[in-house]
Specification:
It is a single chain. About 20% of the residues are buried. The radius of gyration is 16 Å and the shape is globular. The strands form 3 sheets. A 6-stranded mixed β-sheet has the order 7-5-4-3-6-8, with no helix packed on it. A two-stranded antiparallel sheet has the order 1-2. A two-stranded antiparallel ribbon has the order 9-10. By secondary structure, the protein is an all-beta fold. Helices cover about 0% and strands about 30% of the residues.
Length: about 150
């Protein structure tokens, strides 16, 4: 029996369940991101093309359909916690990502919570990693890095 996940305002959303990485409802492209929070979990996945730091960490990212967008870290530390991880070719995962309209650049992602962001040393497939990945023994469907972050 699964228990619904409770959100900050105590409204229940669908419980976590395994999902196919090709499922566009769970892993939408940038232009398909939700504008309002649906009663389900979703995660944006993108390949890091480049990174720069002026005031904060800013990434040029490509989604699964090849669309390029800006990902700007508006976290308390301005992305400092992710600077060493954000390398060209790595994958960034943003839980509950929404489109943001920036004042002087095309729409992109404005990241405000570190807890919703994870960077993986993956280039789309498990055999193209900088770090060896291990296969989950429970589900055999997920690969992970065993290093502590």
């Amino acid at each position: 029996m699964s228990v619904p996940f409770e959100t900050e305002n105590n409204s229940a959303i669908t419980p976590l369940a395994p999902s196919d990485l090709n499922n566009p409802q769970t892993f939408p492209t940038f232009w398909d991101l939700y504008s309002t929070k649906p009663r389900r979990h979703w995660c944006f996945l993108g390949k890091i093309i480049s990174s720069s730091v002026v005031v904060r960490l800013a990434l040029q990212v490509e989604d699964t359909e090849g669309h390029r967008l800006l990902v700007a870290f508006h976290t308390d530390d301005r992305g400092a916690a992710f600077m060493d991880q954000c390398k060209e070719g790595h994958t960034i995962a943003v839980l509950y990502a929404t489109q943001h309209t920036f004042a002087f650049s095309p729409p992109g992602l404005r990241l405000e919570q570190d807890a919703h962001v994870k960077v993986f040393p993956m280039r789309g497939h498990a055999d193209e990693t900088d770090t060896p990945l291990k296969k989950c023994s429970a589900c055999s469907g997920a690969w992970y890095c065993s290093r502590a972050s």
